[in-house]
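Bug: C-alpha cell stream looks shifted between consecutive jobs. Job 1:
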Amino acid sequence: MSTDTGQLLKETEDLMRKSIAHLEAELAKVRAGKATPQMLDGLVVDYYGNPTPINQVGNISVVDARTLTIQPWERNMLQPIERSILQANIGITPQNDGNIIRIFLPPMTEERRRELVKKSNHEGEHARVSVRNLRRDAIERVKKMQKDGLSEDAAKDTEVDIQELTDRFIALVEKHLEAKEKEIMHV
C-alpha cells in the first residue's frame, strides 16, 4: 500500500472516530431515567451579555437518581439560569429556593421512553449518514489518485479497506444505539 492510500485510510478513520464521538455526546444528552449533568450540556445562560454554558456559571451536581442541583457561583445568576432551563423546553421545571436551583425529573412513562428511543435512533441515523459520506469522499479521493497514477489493484484494495472501515464504524453505531435503547427501556 502506498503512503498516500495509507494516509487516506488514517484520515478517514480519524474522521469516522469523530462521528462516533459526536454520537456518544448526543446520546449522553438523552435522559434515560437517571439524572446526569450532561442533560444540561448545550444550555447557555446570558452572563452579563455573553452566552455562556450553564456549567460555567455554577456547579451542577446529582443529588439522587432523579434530582439535579445547580449552585451558581453568583447569586444574581439564579434567575438567568432558571430562565435558560425553561426556554430550552426540555420537559423539566427548575425550582429556585433563593440559593440553589433544584431540578426534579419526573418518572418516565412508556410513551416517553419510546420517544427517547426514537430520538436516539434519529441521532444514530445522523452518525450512519456521516460515516457513509466519509466513505464516499474517501472513495472519490482514491479514484482521483488512480487517475493520477495509482495502480488499479492498489485502488481496489484501498476501496475494500475503506468499506471494511465503514462496516466497522456502522457496527459501532449500532452497538451504541442498542446499549442506549436498553438503558432507556430499563424500568
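Job 2, same session, no restart:
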Amino acid sequence: MSAFIIVIVILVVLALVCMGIYNSLVRLKNRVDEAWSDITVQLKRRSDLIPNLVETVKGYADHEEKVFTEVTAARSGLMNAVSQGPEAAAKAEGDFEHTLKSLFAVSEAYPQLQANDNYKALMAELTDTEDKIQAARRFYNGGVRELNTKIESFPDSIVASMFHFGKRQYFEVQDRAAIEEAPKVNFN
C-alpha cells in the first residue's frame, strides 16, 4: 500500500510540475503575441503618418514623383508583410526605411520645407513613433528569447514538444548595409 501511495504522490508532483511548465509557456507565448501586436500597432501608426508627410513634401518638391511613388509602394508592402510574420515584416521594414531615407533627402533640399510647422510636427510624430517601434522590437525580441530558451531547456522542452510550442523568430533588420551606413546629418 505504501508503494502505491508513493507512486500516486510522484504522479501528482509530476502532473503539477507539467502544469506549471505548461502555464509558464502559455504566459510567455501570450507575451510574445502581445509584443508582436505592439509592433504592428506602431508600424501602422507610422504608416498612417507617411501619407501626410509625403503630401507636405510634395507641396515643395513636385518634380520628385519617383520618390513619392517608392515611399507609397514601400508603405503598402510593409502593411501587407506585417500579417506574414516577423521575417517578412523585417524585410519590408528595411525596404521601407530605405525609401524613407530618400524622402528625407528630398526634404533636406528645401530649407523652406524644413521651417514649415506642419512638416516639423509630422517629423516629431514620426520620430516619436520610431522610438516606440524600437522599444516594441526590443520587448518582442526579449519575449522571444525567453520563450525560445524555455522551449529548449530541460524539462520544459518535453512539455513544449508535447503541446507543440514552437520557437519564434526574432524581429531582425534584414538590411545589414543600412545598419553599418552612418547617418548623414545636415544642419542647414
